[in-house]
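User: Hey, quick favor. My workstation is busy. Could you predict this chain's structure for me?
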Amino acid sequence: MLSNIMGRTTDLRRALKATFVPYVTELGFEIDQRHAPGFLDFRRARNGRIQILEIQWEKYGRPRFKFIFCSISQRGSDCRGTHVPASDAGPGNAPCYVCLYPKGNGRSTRHWFRQDYSLINALLHMRRLRDANGVCSELIELFSEVEHYFSNGVIGPHSRLYKTGFTDAT
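Assistant: No problem, here it is.
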């Protein structure tokens, strides 16, 4: 099953590795592959906080992903008596996280970054898949919203904020 999933997302994963990974590592993010292949995380320390980026692959193996980002205290986070160290935390462990969507409000996977066309667009374009590099370019073009959020907390027009039950550790 996993080889089938990897097969349908291989081109998009390769394109991300060739373009997006160098882009964010140049910005100071370090790659964290502990939760691969379902998730790909990046972390960097800035102003006493850990900034986290996460690519969450669609669970059924279609070539699409959700892009999530957040900031957490270097001391980690707490929820209901449980402490999560910053080195192990993901977006769901931050007090809030933000999802970046190329279109729509993110209520379904059709709003995610995706290489596969919708049925109507597939018929119009006479192809099932978009160019994987185009999907990566789309993410890089919208990445300024991520940096803007990290620098002054403003949610961009392609982003949506979600709150969790966690708080920054004191």
